[in-house]
C-alpha cells in the first residue's frame, strides 16, 4: 500500500484512491477480447509502482466514461498524473509550480503508454500541458516494457525541465499589447466553439481576459495565458456571440479534451514568443 504525502496544496493519492477514480488502471487482463496473441498485458499499476521507485507519485486519476454501445474499448482509456515532492519551480511572490508527468493509456491492445509534461501552479491549480512534440512522442509499448525504459523516459523529462522553465521565463518578460491579448482570447475561445469563425462581443472577450487573483494581474504573456487558460478550461464565462443568445460555457469534464485544449492553448501562447 502506498503512503500519502503532503506538499503544498496537493495530497498524493494512495493506490486505493487511484483505483476508486480509475479502476481500469488495475485491470488484470485486456479490456478488448480481440487483442493479438502477441499482446503482453502490463497494467497501469505496474507503472504507478515503478514511478514511485523514481520519486513520482500520483496526484490525479480519471478514466473515460463507458458507453453502453462499447464498454470494452471506451472504458479502458485512462489518465494518471504524477508529481515529485523534491522538484518544484520557484516563482515570483510565491507563485510556485510543480512539474508533473501525465500518463495516458488503455488496456485494449491499441494504445501504448504515452507521456506528457505538465506544470501546475499552486495558486490556482491550472494545468499547463507543455506542447513539446519531442517529449510527447515518448511512448512505451506494452510489449517488452521494462523499468529501465521507463527510467530513461523520466530522466529525459527531468533533464529537459530547465528548457521548459526558460520558456516560462520568456513568457513572463514578453509584454502583450491590448490587441494581442484580445486576439489570444478570441483564438482560445475558438478552441471550445463549434463555430471557429464566431464573433464574440467585447464583454465576453473582457470576461475571459479578466484577472481573478492578484498573482494574475499584469500584461505579460505568462499571466495573460493563465487568465485565459483558467476561463477556457473551467468555463463559466458568457459566450455572447454577436446576434445570438448568450450562454454560459461549461467546464471541460473529459480528461482527453482537457489535455487537447491545454496543449493547443500553450501552442497559441508560445507562438507569440517568435
Give structural notes.
- The protein is α+β, with helices and mostly antiparallel strands.
- It folds into 2 domains: 6-162, no CATH class; 173-273, no CATH class.
- It is 39% helix and 16% strand.
- The protein contains 10 helices and 10 strands.
- It has helices at residues 15-21, 44-53, 71-76, 133-136, 147-159, 161-173, 178-192, 202-209, 221-234, 255-270, and strands at 6-7, 10-11, 57-63, 78-83, 97-105, 113-121, 127-130, 139-140, 238-239, 247-248.
- The strands form 3 sheets. Strands 3, 4, 5, 6, 7 and 8 form a 6-stranded antiparallel beta sheet that branches.
- Strand 9 and strand 10 form a beta hairpin.
- It is globular.
- It starts with 5 loop residues before the first strand and ends with a helix.
- 31% of the residues are buried.
- Mean pLDDT is 80; it is low at 1-10 and 69-74.
The largest pleated sheet is described as:
6 strands, antiparallel
- Which radius of gyration do the C-alpha atoms yield? 20 Å
State the helix count.
10
Q: State the domain count.
A: 2
Number of strands: 10
How does the overall form come out from the CA principal axes?
A: globular
N/C terminus separation: 48 Å
Structural class: alpha+beta
Unreliable residue runs: 1-10, 69-74
Report helical residue fraction. Answer: 25-40%
Please write the string of helix (H) and strand (E) elements: EEHHEHEEEEHEHHHHHEEH
- Average pLDDT over all residues: 80
- Strand-residue fraction? 15-25%
Amino acid at each position: 500500500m502506498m503512503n500519502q504525502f503532503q506538499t503544498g496544496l496537493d495530497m498524493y493519492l494512495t493506490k486505493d484512491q487511484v483505483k476508486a477514480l480509475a479502476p481500469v488502471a488495475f485491470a488484470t487482463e485486456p479490456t478488448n477480447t480481440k487483442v493479438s496473441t502477441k499482446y503482453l498485458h502490463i497494467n497501469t499499476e505496474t507503472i504507478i509502482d515503478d514511478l514511485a521507485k523514481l520519486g513520482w507519485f500520483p496526484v490525479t486519476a480519471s478514466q473515460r466514461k463507458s458507453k453502453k454501445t462499447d464498454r470494452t474499448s471506451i472504458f479502458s482509456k485512462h489518465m494518471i498524473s504524477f508529481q515529485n515532492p523534491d522538484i518544484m519551480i520557484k516563482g515570483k511572490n510565491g507563485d510556485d509550480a510543480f512539474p508533473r508527468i501525465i500518463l495516458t493509456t488503455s488496456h485494449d491492445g491499441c494504445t501504448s503508454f504515452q507521456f506528457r509534461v505538465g506544470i501546475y501552479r499552486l495558486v490556482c491549480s491550472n494545468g499547463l500541458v507543455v506542447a513539446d512534440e519531442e517529449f510527447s512522442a515518448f511512448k512505451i509499448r506494452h510489449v517488452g516494457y521494462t523499468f529501465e525504459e521507463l527510467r530513461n523516459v523520466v530522466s529525459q523529462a527531468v533533464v529537459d525541465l530547465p528548457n521548459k522553465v526558460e520558456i516560462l521565463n520568456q513568457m513572463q518578460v514578453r509584454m502583450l499589447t491590448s490587441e494581442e491579448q484580445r486576439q489570444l482570447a478570441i483564438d482560445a475561445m475558438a478552441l471550445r466553439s463549434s463555430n471557429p469563425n464566431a464573433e464574440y462581443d467585447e464583454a465576453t472577450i473582457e470576461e475571459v481576459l479578466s484577472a481573478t487573483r492578484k498573482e494574475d494581474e499584469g500584461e505579460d504573456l505568462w499571466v495573460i495565458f493563465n487568465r485565459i487558460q483558467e476561463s477556457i478550461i473551467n468555463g463559466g464565462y458568457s459566450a455572447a456571440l454577436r446576434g445570438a443568445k448568450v450562454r454560459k460555457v461549461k467546464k471541460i469534464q473529459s480528461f482527453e479534451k482537457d489535455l487537447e485544449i491545454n496543449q493547443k492553448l500553450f501552442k497559441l501562447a508560445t507562438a507569440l514568443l517568435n
